[in-house]
Amino acid sequence: MKKKNWQIKLGIILIILCIPFFLIIPVFPFMELEAKTKITLSTVSMIIGEVLFWSGGILVGKELFMKYKSYFNPKNWFKKTDQSEEQNK
Known about the structure:
The protein contains 4 helices and no strands.
């Protein structure tokens, strides 16, 4: 159980650490850099963010990963949950 506990914590940390890499991408076009540098930075940031997200997903497991993945989906941000769904959780 102790082995599984650190894997879940590390997975959640990796999922949280991926957020800044995705949030910085829209900032790159407004920086005073060459176009090639902007493209490279955006690509590297996207790849790092994806690797962190999916690595964290593998560590936390399928059920917990799907739960956290739904939190990041903008479609689910303003939905109201049914009473029956909350009772089942």
